[in-house]
Design brief:
four-stranded antiparallel beta sheet; 26% helix; alpha+beta
Length: 160
């Protein structure tokens, strides 16, 4: 199916006053949706079947952010007496400097201002994240080798 056939199909769907049409062949699938039956606006979304492995990976990524709000809710309830070390960037959180080394910090470890507590990989660069407060690590809020967002809480520190 070429672009002219797709355009003709879109015109046909809009004139037929239907809200959705799906067309499948062995190698090609297209769904055309119109927001209001009879309008001239249509959406075409071609999908190729050999991309199935990418579709399998997508639910795992969706599950990770779903768990993060529960962790953030716990962090805000404990936040009154603890100081939070937050991610200064988007990237992948690592507790170790390399796979064969020990973790930077564990729960119960004392940290001082400027001590490296983790590494965040962003665009193949490993950025050392330093503690901004002195105290004791109370909780590690992120699992090793997971994606983190900007300003996402990573550690809870008891400053006393």
């Amino acid at each position: 199916m070429d672009i002219k056939d797709i355009q003709n199909l879109i015109k046909f769907v809009s004139k037929a006053e239907v809200s959705e049409v799906k067309y499948k062949t062995k190698d090609f699938e297209i769904t055309i949706k119109t927001p209001l039956a009879g309008s001239e606006v249509a959406y075409a979304q071609p999908a190729v079947y050999h991309t199935a492995p990418q579709q399998v990976a997508a639910p795992a990524q969706v599950a990770t952010p779903a768990a993060a709000p529960a962790e953030k809710a716990e962090a805000t309830s404990d936040d009154s007496k603890y100081v939070t070390i937050k991610s200064p960037m988007i990237g992948t959180f690592y507790r170790k400097p390399s796979p064969d080394k020990d973790v930077f910090v564990n729960v119960g470890d004392e940290v001082s201002n400027g001590k490296v507590v983790c590494v965040i990989e962003a665009m193949k660069l490993f950025n050392q994240i330093e503690s901004e407060v002195s105290g004791k690590i109370v909780k590690i809020l992120v699992d090793d080798a997971t994606p983190v967002e900007y300003d996402q809480p990573l550690f809870l520190v008891d400053p006393s």
